[in-house]
Amino acid sequence: MSAVIESDHHDHHHGPAKGLMRWVLTTNHKDIGSMYLWFSFIMFLIGGTMALIIRAELFEPGMQIVKPEFFNQMTTMHGLIMVFGAVMPAFVGLANWLIPMMVGAPDMALPRMNNWSFWILPFAFGLLLSTLFMDGGGPNFGWTFYAPLSTTYAPPSVTFFIFAVHMMGVSSIMGAINVIATILNLRAPGMTYMKMPLFVWTWLITAFLLIAVMPVLAGVVTMMLMDIHFGTSFFNAEGGGDPVLFQHVFWFFGHPEVYIMILPAFGIASAIIPTFSRKPLFGYPSMVYATASIAILSFIVWAHHMFTVGLPLAGELFFMYATMLIAVPTGVKIFNWVATMFRGSLTFETPMLFSIAFVILFTIGGFSGLMLAIAPVDFQYHDTYFVVAHFHYVLVPGAIFSIFAAAYFWLPKWTGHMYNETLGKVHFWMSFIGLNLTFFPMHFVGLAGMPRRIPDYALQFADFNQISSVGAFIFGTTQLLFLFIVIQCIRGGKKASAQVWEGADGLEWTLPSPAPYHSFAQPPVIK
Amino acid sequence: MKGSESLQARHRRVLLRALLVVGSMFCFGFALVPIYDVFCKVTGLNGKTQDRFVGVIDVPEGVERSVRVQFITQTNAGMPWEFRPVLREVSVAVGQPTDVEFYAANPTTINMVAQAVPSVSPSEGAAFLQKTECFCFQHQPLKAGEETHMKLRFFVDANLPDHIHTLTLSYTLFDITDRDPKTKS
Question: Which residues contact A17 (CB under 8 A, 6 or more apart)?
Answer without folding.
Answer: A25, A26
